[in-house]
Amino acid sequence: TLVKMEETSYDSEEILQELLDRYPDLLAGYQMNRENPRRWIPIAREFGIPSGMNATSQWRIDHFFIDQDSIPTFIEVKRSSDTGIRREVVGQMMDYAANATKYWPMESIQTAFIEKYVKDGKDSIQVLNDLLGIEAENEADIEEFWSKVQENLRNGVIRMLFVADEIPEELRRIIEFMNDQMTKSQVLGIEIRQYLNV
């Protein structure tokens, strides 16, 4: 049978954030790279970013993911009805990226990764092994993965994702411009629309 669905706006940003955390494949990694689709490890939600060495967190990124190539991925989530989705969210993302690449200690990223999966009742090492396609006892590959994450972060080899139910034209143009100008970082806008039974 067919079930009629109707596009419906999210009641809150929290709903979309929770969906991303539970179903990271909503980010459609195959559309970013069809030959080698992106696979995601969610690391943390509302992850604190300091504004200086050994400083306390000044900002909080909605989501922080890492893909199978050790590329740190910053995700900011907004509903299209939020007026901050236009220029304000771009400034926020620039703050996050500029400070995280310089001041984020790798220990805090690894700790957040372990804490998340312990909380979810999963083995963090197995989660990482599943992403990398390696055996649990291969510690060298795991160390190499984290070392590459740190190298990418310090060199600005990162990905910035703006996620919304609908990307406004103003934000779309900014994303296109940033991608044209940046050589090491990737900037993408992703629409995740919601359909409910009518």
Quickly list its features:
globular; single chain; about 25% strand; alpha/beta; two-stranded antiparallel ribbon; 7 helices; 5-stranded mixed beta sheet; 7 strands; about 40% helix; about 200 residues
Write structural notes for this entry:
The protein is α/β, with parallel strands linked by helices and 198 residues long. The model has no long low-confidence stretch (mean pLDDT 90). It is globular, with a radius of gyration of 17 Å. It has a five-stranded mixed sheet, sandwiched between helices. Helix content is 42%, strand content 23%. The protein is built from seven helices and seven strands. The protein has helices spanning 13-22, 29-32, 88-103, 106-119, 124-132, 139-155, 169-181; strands at residues 5-7, 40-50, 57-67, 72-77, 159-164, 186-191, 195-197.
How many distinct helices? Answer: 7
The end-to-end span amounts to 15 Å
Structural class category: alpha/beta
Query: Reading side by side through the largest sheet, how are the strands ordered?
Result: 2-3-4-5-6
Oligomer: single chain
How do you describe this structure in short?
With 198 residues, the chain is of the alpha/beta class.
